[in-house]
Amino acid sequence: MGNRCAVIGVGQTHYTTRRRDVSMAGLVREAALRALEDAGLTFADIDAVVVGKAPDLFEGVMMPEAYLADALGAAGKPMMRVHTAGSVGGSTALVGASLIQGGVHDRVLVVAYEKQSESNATWALTTHLPFTSSLVVGAGGYFAPHIREYMRRSGAPDHIGTLVAVKDRLNALKNPYAHLRIPGIDRAMVESTPMLWEPIRYLETCPSSDGACAIVLSSEHAVTGTPAWVHGGAMRSEPIFRAGRDTVSPQAGIDCAADVYRQAGVTDPRRDLDVAEVYVPFSWYEPMWLENLGFCGVNEGWKLTEAGATALDGDIPWNASGGVLSSNPIGASGLIRFAEAALQVRGMAGEHQVEGARKALGHAYGGGAQFFAMWIVGAEKP
Amino acid sequence: MPSEPNHVLEFPGGYTRSTGPVIGRFLTELRAGRIVGVRTAARKVLVPPLEYDPATGEPTLTTPDQTSPEPSYDFVEVGPAGTVREWTWVEEPRKNHPLDRPFAWALIRLDGADTSLVHAVDAPVKAMRTGMRVWPRWRSDRVGSITDLECFVPEVSTIVATVRTEYTVTPGAALARYLDALTREVFLAGRCPTCESVYVPYRLSCPQCGSVIEEELEVGPAGTVTTFAINNLPDPRAPQVPFVSAYILLDGADTPIIALLSEIPSDQVTEGMRVRAVFEGGTVKWFAPEREA
Asked: Cβ of B271 and A57 within 8 Å?
């Protein structure tokens, strides 16, 4: 895995429907400055900058990293952009970490963002060629059939998705950066909202958010403040048109988890990890990923959710921050998972801190559930 | 709305009024495209300027310093931008209003001023809020009147950027053959020589093992629904809601295709349902439940 790498700073903007007061440059700079402040550093202390962002066509700014270089203090420094669809925030952190682990740099600034209020995501995702017709269904319409198939296979009762939708929004009430903060959120409220893409209800879906997240990564000898040590990191992809591809529990997710667990010495994730920040943009993806990530056996994920195991006071809290269901600036959403995992093991998660968290998983997925990025961070050196 | 008048009283040519030194300067500056206020003895900048300080009743003449003992008016250029302090919405403008569309009357505190100016703001009601920043829109033919300022408008905070690229695209060898077969109402597939998986649409290499695909075969046009979504979110480019997008495994194929499923109420669609392609105009119109022969 190379040299040791630590997260020494985390910065987030408040996630919200519309940040009309700032440009994209202003948005990313806000997160970057907060991460630097957390690390007790300035741009002058940074060796390289890595930017993550969903497709350019979302906001229609081509190669935005070039335009953002000034705002991120990248003049005269190496800077690069990462793009792996929805998993990009996680991949960006891992690319940044690899620059430390490989001994290339001592301090790397990693930033990811999305300004969904100025984005045309559904349009950008359905720019099909003229030869075939395309069903304009968006991300929800794409994932709904896989959720339906999970429900059929597992025999999970219909209300499991509702439980996750409530649980994550209750957690969001404890996170000052969360976008959806819904007082009085409960099952009746979720169940009263319409089916957008049956079987996905409105409140079982993530919001569209503006926001940016940044982290400062450091080599061992350059650590300042409170570090979260990287114990393992892995990425996997798989061909979306492969015959026999299991879209409910993709092989790339299983392989990626096995790799990151091996690096971090995790043999039983439910027992060995204290908290997980997992990319759950539609509530049913919690039980699906519980199985894909090996927190339980096949078709058992919904039972953990139903028993409250993943709640803030459960034995393995998932998405203590409120997760993607509560804040979704797409390009940043993966990095937020990775950053929240780091905040937990640094003991800096505030009101949604999981007591005594020592080891945490950050997870992101993207595309048609064919790109995966994960890391495990810990309070102790690996 | 007021009814049409049946009697009009108007002095021919209008009344003449002297402006005095302060209002005259204010209007003269407006004609030149500037806005000025007058500074009082208490160092407050009044905009619009007044001849007599409302706080003291004294003339707004001041003695700036010892070197020029003669009292004079201390005119100060303010703005041109300002902040809306209060506002009210006019949904139905009247004939003499400055704008012929809905607008706001606002109290605007121009930058550098200590009092607020009443003027019109041309903005959508959704954009109106206390604290918003506004800039003047000047008339080009100014005469020395408060209406030289046509109105105030919001700051530029967003732009509209056109995103458009033009391409010449061709379907490529494999897709061209697939599309050609569709015109004959045939689904063309390819079988991987190594893993024996059957891919539709027809393609030239296996996405799993990379082998070159040479064997062509026909699959479908009947198949089985593996799973589906009922889409209720309208989009101008999508079919009318609710519509069913289904994963359909064509008979003989190993990869499902995503297609519109029609000719059946959405709540009657089931996983495992047998369906058949309906062709129209040389392509697939949609899939429909397979009828018993």
From this structure: no
